[in-house]
Amino acid sequence: MAHHEVERYSRGARLFHWAITAAALALAVTGLILYVPAFGGAAEGSYTRIIHRIAAAIFVVSPLLFFLTRPGRSLHFIKGIFTWGKADIDWLKAAPDYYFGGDEKKMPPQGDMNSGQKLWAVVAFLSAIGFVLTGALMWFAKASIPAELFLWATIIHDLCFIVAGAMLLVHLYLGAIHPRMTESLKSMLKGKVSEEYAKSHHGKWYEEISKDGEADKGTTPSGH
Q1: Rounded to two decimals, what is the model's pTM?
Q2: Is CB count within 10 Å lower at the N or C end of the chain?
Q3: pLDDT tens across 135-156, in order?
Q4: Domain boundaries, the chain
Q5: What is the CATH number of domain 5-212?
Q6: Residues near 145 by Cβ (< 8 Å), separated by ≥ 6?
Q7: Confidence band, pLDDT 50/70/90 cuts, at residue 222
Q8: Would you list the DSSP string of 22-59?
C-alpha cells in the first residue's frame, strides 16, 4: 500500500542546508587543525587557513542569499525559533523519556519545528553570529585591535565552537541515526516525509497545512 507524502522542505531550503553543513564541517576540521597543537604540522603552508577562510565566506554568503531570495520564510524561521511557550517546555521535559523509548503519545503536538529543533536552531543561530563577529575581527582587524580584544575574540570563537559542536553531534544523531527519526534525513534529501510521520512528529504543522490545502509546500530550512 502506497503512503501519501507531504513536502517538508523545498529544493532551495535543502540546498541552503547542505551548503551550510558543508561549510560548517570544513570550518570545524580546519579550525581544529589550526588550534590544536598536536595537529600543528598539518597547518604548515597555511593551506588550512585558506580553506578555513573560503568555508567562512560560504558560511556567511549562503544565509545572506537565502534571506535575499526568501525574506518572508527567513523571518518566519527566525521568529519561530525564538518563540517559546508552555508546550515547548513540556516537550523538553518529556523528550528524554521519549528518545529512550517512552510513549510517543505523551509528547505535546508540535509545529513545523519541534522544541528540540528550535533549541538546536537557537544555538546554531547565536553561535553563527558569534563566529562571524569574532572571525571578522581575527581575520581583518588582527593588526589594528588591542591584543586583549583579539584574545577575547579567540576565546569567544572557541566557546562558540564547543557549544555549537556539541549540539551538532546531537543534531546529527537525531537527524540521521535515531530510530524514531528515520524520515528526518530523507526529508532533507528528497524534501518529503510520509503523512504518518508528519502527523506524529509535527501534528500542529500537519493540521495547519491540511486545513489550508497546502500539504505540498515546504517549510523552514532546519530540522531533525
Answers
A1: 0.86
A2: N
A3: 999 999 999 999 999 999 999 9
A4: 5-212
A5: 1.20.950.20
A6: 137, 153
A7: very low
A8: HHHHHHHHHHHHHH-GGGGGGGGGGHHHHHHHHHHHHH
**Average pLDDT of the chain to the nearest whole number:** 88
**Dihedral sign, Cα of residue 23, residue 61, residue 136, residue 125:** negative
Which residues, in sequence order, are CB contacts of 80 under 8 Å at separation 6+? 111, 112, 113, 118, 220
Annotate 164-202 with DSSP letters as a single string: HHHHHHHHHHHHHT-GGGHHHHHHHHHSEEEHHHHHHH-
- Locate 219 and state its grid cell: 517549510
If DSSP codes are grouped into helix, strand and coil, which group holds residue 8?
A: coil
- Segment 109-139, tens digit of pLDDT: 888 899 999 999 999 999 999 999 999 999 9
Euclidean distance between CA atoms 79 and 96, whole angstroms? 26
Query: How far, in Å, CA of 153 to CA of 130, rounded?
Result: 9
Buried b (16+ CB within 10 A) or exposed e, 158-193: eebbeebeebbeebeebbeeeeebebbebbbeebbb
Helix (H) or strand (E) holding 5: strand 5-7
Largest CA distance in the chain: 67
199 in Cβ contact with 205 (< 8 Å): no
Cell of 103: 510513549
Q: Rounded distance, CA 210 to CA 215, Å?
A: 6
